[in-house]
Write a structure and sequence with these properties.
This protein is of the alpha/beta class. It has one domain: TIM Barrel (Alpha-Beta Barrel), CATH 3.20.20.80. It is about 40% helix and about 15% strand. The protein contains 18 helices and 13 strands. The strands form three sheets. Strands 1-2-3-4-5-7-10-11 form an eight-stranded parallel beta barrel, surrounded by five helices. Strands 6-8-9 form a three-stranded mixed sheet, with helices on one face. Helix 1 packs antiparallel against helix 16, helix 5 packs parallel to helix 7 and helix 9 runs parallel beside helix 11. It is globular. The structure holds D-gluconic acid.
């Protein structure tokens, strides 16, 4: 069914494809055009106004963890330059801005005493966005867990789920009158695997059981937080943000095909199926059984209003007996283009994932909450960047997304990752995804040519 559904879109014969070729706008007038960032990647000011430590502060200051020894101590200094960044959003005609709140700014110990100066920062940011008619989209968790909770087990400890729900309620009580779109988590799958399974992200844990526990407890925390947000206000649009990638076998061997199916269940299914279907994918359900307490499945499956899809590239998976799930990233077909992150470029994968979401979760609105590309931008003397490769990437993926509109996909918006060059986790500042260049020595912001592309031609399908 999926292939039959896809065929006309991949061949570019769909009505939307023709319109995407510049015969009128591909996207409806109420389509949301946004930009995305996250707290630890842009804010800096890690010791200001009572902010508590996060697991990323500790991880970055552990030798050898981050390229070039970079940290988020200063980042884009957004905590002090937020007015300038809001002005950039307005200049780019973005109708929405997706940001995340730093849990340790609001609850320095993760629970208990509220740091009102942290809430005040986001309150000012939200007011400035609303004043510019930019819809604030708030993500409650983009990986920066309070270190105090990590010391109590973090996402390996079920108590963290309740603390997360309490944090969500505190933020909604302060901002819920103006913030109407909320995401509980950003990419629980990435955080579980990279932070708790292979240890290349904070908190640097390893092992299959740690990854499974972190995955399950984030899913449970999502459900408890959705219930808490619904109890706080009835006028919120609630969802979660997931990173989905087609898991393609690296070869035609049975082993690689089975490995790809298994990795698909772990990567694309374990973070989504419990939330919308009430259980883990059959291929891996047994692995989670010991973690599931009475009531968990019902608690995780709270009605939500939308799904946020982060898409960058497909995955090519091979059998890997030594890896956590017997499967890992493998050979990519010869001739495949790559971004500077080494990620394969294939916009058809976005079409595939959007169609798959419609097949599996068709009753939900979908927003592309992250899509973008890292390239080794060459800056002119004035800081300007003609990032034609990034424009080509954005264009091909917008065309791929637009093709699905006539296939019943309830695609409602697109957020570029990212507004600003920022702290790219283990890669530090060596990798740039922004449509605005940041000179990290001077903090000067300079819109790239992709910024102008997104503000104009992109919206008319060009
Ligand atoms: C992610 C995160 C972002 C990344 C971006 C580029 O998807 O990993 O949401 O924080 O910076 O995706 O890797």
């Amino acid at each position: 069914m999926l292939i039959a559904t896809l065929a006309p879109f991949v061949l570019g014969k769909s009505p939307a494809a023709r319109s995407a070729a510049g015969h009128g706008s591909t996207f409806p007038a109420d389509f949301v055009w946004g930009a995305a960032t996250s707290s630890y990647q842009i804010e800096g000011a890690v010791d200001v106004d009572g902010r508590g430590k996060s697991i990323w502060d500790v991880f970055c200051h552990s030798p050898g963890r981050i390229k070039n020894g970079d940290t988020g101590d200063v980042a884009c200094d957004h905590y002090h330059r937020w007015r300038e960044d809001v002005a950039l959003l307005a200049r780019g005609s973005f109708g929405a801005y997706r940001f995340s709140t730093a849990w340790p700014r609001i609850l320095p110990a993760g629970s208990g005493a509220i740091e009102h100066r942290g809430l005040d920062f986001y309150d000012r940011l939200v007011d400035a966005l609303v004043a510019q008619r930019i819809a604030p989209w708030l993500c409650l968790y983009h990986w920066d867990l309070p270190q105090a909770l990590q010391q109590q087990g973090g996402w390996l400890n079920r108590d963290t789920c309740r603390h997360f729900a309490d944090y969500a309620q505190i933020v909604a009580r302060r901002l819920g009158d103006r913030v109407k779109h909320w995401a509980t988590f950003n990419e629980a799958n990435v955080h579980a695997l990279f932070g708790h399974g292979i240890g290349t992200h904070a908190p640097g844990l390893t092992g299959r059981s740690n990854m499974l526990a972190a995955m399950h407890h984030q899913n449970l925390a999502h459900g408890l937080a959705v219930a808490a947000l619904r109890a706080e206000r009835s006028d919120l649009r609630l969802g979660t943000i997931i990173n989905l990638q087609p898991a393609r076998p690296s070869s035609q061997s049975d082993e690689d095909r089975r490995a790809a199916e298994r990795f698909d269940a772990v990567w694309n299914g374990a973070c989504l199926d419990p939330l919308t279907k009430g259980g883990y994918p059959a291929a891996i359900a047994a692995e989670f059984a010991s973690l599931i307490a009475d009531g968990d499945l019902a608690a995780m499956r709270q009605p939500i209003d939308y799904l946020g899809l982060n898409y960058y590239s497909p995955m090519y998976i091979a059998q890997a007996p030594q890896s956590l799930f017997g499967a890992w990233f493998g050979a990519v077909p010869a001739g495949t283009p790559f971004t500077a992150m080494g990620w394969p470029i294939d916009a058809a994968g976005l079409t595939e994932e959007l169609i798959r979401l419609r097949e599996r979760h068709g009753d939900l609105d979908i927003y592309i909450t992250e899509n973008g590309a890292c390239f080794d931008d060459l800056a002119a003397a004035d800081g300007s960047v003609r990032d034609e490769e990034r424009i080509a990437y954005l264009r091909s993926h917008l065309v791929a997304a637009g093709r699905t509109l006539h296939a019943g996909v309830r695609l409602r918006g697109y957020f570029v990752w990212s507004l600003l060059d920022n702290f790219e986790w283990a890669e530090g500042y060596s990798r740039r995804f922004g449509v605005v260049r940041v000179d990290f020595d001077t903090q000067r912001r300079t819109p790239k040519s992709s910024f102008a592309y997104l503000a104009g031609p992109a919206r008319s399908g060009l």
